[in-house]
Each structure stands twice: as structure tokens, then as C-alpha cells.
Amino acid sequence: MTLKEKSKLMDEQMIKRTLMRISHEILERNKGTKEIVIVGIRKRGAYLASRIAQMIKEIDGNEIPEGILDITLYRDDLTMIDTCPVVHSTLIDFDINDKIVVLVDDVLFTGRTIRCALDELIDLGRPKNIQLAVLVDRGHRELPIRADYVGKNVPTTLTESVEVKLKEVDDKEEVVLLVKEKD
After folding, report:
1. What CATH number is attached to the domain comprising 94?
2. What does the alpha-carbon distance between residue 43 and residue 125 come to, in Å, rounded to a whole number?
3. Angstrom distances, CA of residue 3 to CA of 26, 70, 136
4. Are 86 and 167 in contact, with CB atoms under 8 Å apart?
5. Statement: the pTM of the whole predicted model exceeds 0.90
6. Closest CA to 13 of 147, 140, 175
7. In the chain, how many domains are there?
8. To 10 degrees, what angle do helices 44-60 and 12-30 make?
9. With CB atoms counted within 10 Å of each terminal CB, which end of the chain scores lower, N or C?
10. Diameter of the chain by CA atoms?
11. What is residue 26's three-state secondary structure?
12. In tens digits, what is the pLDDT along the chain, a chain of 183 residues?
């Protein structure tokens, strides 16, 4: 099976506007930046988290701590993805105890990635609150997880996939809907 682009869901400007809206929502809900830290799930979630942290600084004037979470060793399908998975480091050089952790990822699908991230965060400390921000929610949850901040809801079928492309990784800035086709 191959994946073929079905439609473009977001372009560069839409992504930027969406992240700005999410940044405002985070500030409004938490009444400022006092207790907030931002943690992105490696790979694209980390870049989105960094952008949100920068936007919050531009809006509010306060810099908030930001970190990167690598959930590889927490995955429940670790043995199925590769015999030697590449593990990157988790980079959180601040205390998350009694903080409001805003966890950021690119696409929310089954909820399993978020479950792994929650497990790892709890191993690192006891946050006051954990909130979830995602660029795209495509549905099909297998676990009772929902995002607090959603850029775009995109109902999909199981034969479709959502792919986020960011300049830092892909030299492109877009979100596309892909469909699986038989070869």
C-alpha cells in the first residue's frame, strides 16, 4: 500500500494563525504564565511547543520553560516498530512539580502516544496539572484522552492519515490528508 495526498488541510499561514490562537487560549485558561511550562513530544511536537512558547513570550512578555520529551522507551509497541529503535534524550532541565505542564504534539489519533508521554511525565515529577495541545485531532481514540487545545479537528477514516510537515524537519510547512491506496 502507498499513501497518496488527498488534500491539503493547512498551509503555512494557517499553521501560524492556529498556533497563535492556541497560545492565546493557553494564556487565557491559565490566567498568564506564572506556573506554566511547555513540553513537546519529539519530533514535530517539540518544534510546535517551541513556537507556542515563543508566541506566548511575544504576547505576554514572559519567557516560559520549554522541554522535549522522547517517549520511545514508553511505547507499548516498541518491539513491533523496530528491533533497534533510535532513542533520543528527553530534555527537561526544570522542575515540573506543582507546575502546569502544557504537553504539545502534532496529531492526536489513538491516544497511545499521549499515554506514553503522561507516563514519562509522571516519572519525572508530580505536575499540578497536565494540559494537552495538538495541531490536529483526527479522532479514532483507543484510550480516554482528549486535547484541551485543538488547532483543527479532522474526522478521518482508518484508510486516511494526517501528516504534519514542518520547516525544521521537512523543509515544508503544511498539513496534508493522505489516503492509503493498494499498489
Report:
1. 3.40.50.2020
2. 22
3. 34, 26, 19
4. no
5. yes
6. 175
7. 1
8. 60
9. C
10. 53
11. helix
12. 788 989 999 999 999 999 999 999 999 999 999 999 999 999 999 999 999 999 999 999 999 999 999 998 875 554 454 555 556 688 999 999 999 999 999 999 999 999 999 999 999 999 999 999 999 999 999 999 999 999 999 999 999 999 999 999 999 999 999 998 876
User: Residue 72's closest CA among 105, 43, 102?
Assistant: 43
User: Would you state the cell numbers that stand for residue 131, as one nine-digit string?
Assistant: 494540559
Q: In angstroms, what is the C-alpha Rg of the chain?
A: 16
The residue to which cell 508566541 is assigned: 55
Take residue 130 and report the three cell numbers written for it: 497536565
Backbone phi, then psi, for 121, in 5-degree steps? -60, -45
Q: Can you give the residue range of the structural domain that contains 110?
A: 2-181
Which residue is listed with cell 506564572?
Answer: 34
How many CA within 13 A on the CB side of residue 161? Answer: 12
d(CA 105, CA 116): 12
b/e string for 18-34 if b means 16 or more Cβ within 10 A? Answer: bbbebbeebbeebeebe
